[in-house]
Amino acid sequence: MKPKLKNTLVLLFVLFLTNQLFAQIPTDQDCLGAIPVCEGYYSQPNSYTGSGAYPNEIPTTGACPGNCMSDGELNCVWYYVTVQSDGLMGFVISPNNVTDDYDWAVYNLTFARCEDIFTQVTQLQASCNWSGTKGATGPNGNSGMVCQGAGGTPFNAMIPVQEGENYVINISNYSSTQYGYALDFSMSTAQIYDDVPPVIDEIYDEDVHGCNTNTMTFLWSENVLCERVEPSYFDVTGPGGPYTVTDVQGIACELGGTWEKEFVLTVDPPFASNGEYVLHVLTLFPGIVDACNNPAESDQIPFFLDLGAPDLDTSAMNISPATCGMDNGSITGLSASGQTSITYNWKNSFGTIVGNTIDLINVPPEYYTLEIYDLNSCITYGGPWEVSDFDAPDINDQNVVIVPSNYGVNNGSITGILVNGLVPITDYIWTDDQGGVVGNVVDLIDVSSGYYDLTVVDENTCEAYAGPYFVGELGGPLTTNPIANPSTICFGEQVQLSPGAGGGSGTYEYSWTSTPEGFSSNLENPVVAPTENTTYHLQLWDGYIAANGSVLVTVLLLPVPDAGIDQAIPHGIYTFLEGSASMGSGDYNYFWAPVDKLEDAAVQNPQTRNLYETTHFFLTIIDEQTGCESSGTDEVIVNITGGMLNVNPIALPDTIVCLNETFELYANAGGGSGLYNYQWTDTAGVVLSNEASFELSLSEAGVYYFYLKVDDGYNDIYGYVRVRVDPAPVINLGSAIQYVCVHETITLDAENPGSAYLWSNGDTNQYTTMGTTGLGYDEQTLSVHVVNTQGCMADASTTIIFDYDYCVGVGELANGVEVELYPNPTNGMLNLNIDGVSGNVRVHIRTAVGTSISEHTFKPDANKNITETLDLSNQARGIYFLIIEGDNFYHTAKVLLQ
Predict the structure, then answer these.
(1) Coil vs helix vs strand at 858
(2) Whole-number pLDDT of residue 537
(3) Would you give the DSSP letter of residue 175?
(4) Contact between residue 750 and residue 757 where contact means Cβ atoms under 8 Å apart
(5) pTM value > 0.85
(6) Would the pLDDT of 9 be above 50?
(7) CB 689 within 8 A of CB 757
(8) Is the CB of residue 306 less than 8 Å from the CB of residue 257?
(9) Which of 550, 766, 773, 802 could form a disulfide with 778 if both were Cys (CB 3.0 to 4.6 A apart)?
């Protein structure tokens, strides 16, 4: 018996406990190793002994309404609950030995940790019972109390809980026996059996300070298994990335605990920039799981960091376009401030540094980004911003009118040209074929025969060009002055030929040929595309005489790119590309694509960014002297060794099966080398198969996870299959052979409400009743086939023997069992003594015609004896039968009530 009042000593063990936290691996007898509650019923056959690796987690001081566990932990075990829906949580602890005294306490650890219980027990205690009453106990709602000491009742009020809350339950065996208990949560209205995947609930981004910080703390929605949380399951993206997660640790995990919900993530390089980031949760083998083995799913959680990096003010920013494609664009008006002195890097879209001051000036049309560095290794990014191109004036010569000059007179003209611009035109400059200026207005008049070019300049100094235009000649000798526009081209470009005809009759025929041979034309202005240096010859005929002329077209060779040989690198690292060029002048500009896969795409041998898939890179060359661009790109492939494996394991024919039903697990792998090695494992890591598919069946109901590792000789990839095994109906028809008095009937219960039933007697109900003629010995066998709501089935049978020997008399008892009834006859109170029994005994009282009066179940004491009193005083006088049935005997006795 527990004393009503207890004097206890205050144990000064905080320092001891602190040292222990860093030295012992928790067990399920410790809060840090608590058993997760993943189902509604737990059977513990034997009692726990001692208090685990962390004794004295509960204080021994205080009293209700504070701490009620006056002896702290005693032969205890811990359970852990994650609440899935609002409601009431309740449970009953039923000792296997009804004379045992079990105590318990429930603590709310939603915002606390195991080590907080000792110092904050009053605040964290949700319900507690230290009643000295033997037998069942728990918060089942049979009282309104939330804390009871030794003199209280064994039952408390049910505990109101909310979704997302976390609780631990300590169960202690005060009796210190070896008998265990059953723990039943079925009366709870809240869902406390966890079937929801864990998710990251919060990232403590406000706790990340300074640009040398490489850690960040985050919180799961519930406890997850420590051994499953690894760096490879996480990825971080954001300013200054990519980031590599190098470590993930939880406090309880570091102490050797099984579960934890708060973790610290370490990245490389350290965070250096203010801005938006994303934490990615990846689904890899074997996966992060919660306390009930629910795997975390892929997720992306945004967060913002303010690290004290330099501030960039863009409110006064001014972007001036580049005019006419020239290098005169600018981005100005920005201002920046920081905690230290700062430096600047401007980069173009190729990643090339093009400026190192706050103002970017004299740049061509492009996209630009700004990087601002301080002395604390912080970086602030600005942009990208576009410097646009301010167009040059537009010259429209579709309606040009060219009037030839008379022989010996300067009276030719070029008119009808229209000029449009976004800003006013400041200059018109006409030049002859010697470069001399011959006019300064849009119309050129009073000129002699010859070629003329027009240059138009606007107030932004943008220039536009037109021409050459040929002013012919009327009268005088026949002349020809052929030209090519342009006279120098890159391979593959086109040229227009002009005859420059004048004089003679004024009516001309044209005959063009070439050296090397291969071209001829009778057109006045043919278009040609020579593939090598070519001289074009013209014979001009006016019907009377001929004139000859020629013009040379120079063809520049195109540069030829060479992107280097293909490479193969491991997944997730960088490499250097090796570009070169040939032909042309020998001075080259290099342009690689895709730009976003490179650190600087405008250098000869660029460094790639970290590559996570096979990537094709393309090199284009522009001759720096001639401006000729390579006719195509050259390709180099950086192979990620082994390729990108994929796997999608499945269960066939379904992911829901019945107990002992055979199903198949199929790997469904693809990609990679095409040659695969397989390894299937269960949750415990036991290897099940090394084949692509295999069959199995399971003999216990529940949710199972099967993990698959696929290796293609280069890389590994992982997947998993979730299979739910539904239970078969559990049918208990009683003993295989049952004896009944010939005057009685017996009702059999196939249990499993809601199922479909078929008894061998044709009955389709859950219950069926059997009887006999009452004339003598009769033996009947009855079987039943049950199909439950999940489609799973089971069979059971029993044999019923109707016999007069089980109607009256004492009869023989087996295994040394002795039954004593007195007084008999009785006036109402009947004493029952049974000796030598090892389990519960059921006593059924019936009238002489078989009507049931009452049923009782009695438990033997430690000496295997039962002593009870039966009250028949409220019954009518007459003969009654007592049917006494135990695990190893069956006995019927006749009693006379006077």
Answers:
(1) strand
(2) 96
(3) T
(4) yes
(5) no
(6) no
(7) no
(8) no
(9) 802
